[in-house]
Automatic annotation (TrEMBL):
Pfam families in the cross-refs: Cupin_2
Organism: Paenibacillus silvestris
Phylogenetic classification of the source organism: Bacteria, Bacillati, Bacillota, Bacilli, Bacillales
Protein name: Cupin domain-containing protein
Positions of transmembrane segments: none
Domain Cupin type-2: 55-104
Length: 114
């Protein structure tokens, strides 16, 4: 096991111009703001854009790091550890490592009867 003093810590700067958006599902884009590997797998920070899309996101569980989502555009219905709630532009969502979670575009969730 690696001791805390053996882990290299350093400042992180990611400019807005360096952001790279990835299409996860149709109408859903994610940009990594902080990768877990940069912070000893303590957390990952994502910006999220939600627009009309088909289907709901799959349930995921990440064991290495907490996840932090910042909603930039749109609105999503989150399912985190058995709780359900809507989140919109400007909201921040923290998902502790090991917690089942999923999210989907709000209009799609309501139209499917969930």
């Amino acid at each position: 096991m690696q001791r805390h003093q053996d882990l290299e810590r350093h400042g992180i700067h990611h400019s807005h111009q360096e952001m790279e958006w990835f299409d996860v599902l149709p109408g859903e884009q994610v940009a990594y703001r902080v990768h877990g590997k940069d912070v000893n797998n303590e957390y990952s920070l994502f910006d999220l854009r939600m627009a009309a899309k088909q289907g709901n996101g799959p349930i995921a569980i990440h064991h290495k790091a907490d996840e932090i989502f910042r909603i930039i555009e749109g609105e999503a219905r989150f399912h985190i550890g058995g709780k359900k709630f809507n989140a919109g532009a400007g909201d921040v969502i923290v998902v502790p490592r090991g917690t089942p979670h999923a999210f989907a575009y709000v209009d799609n969730v309501y139209s499917s009867g969930r």
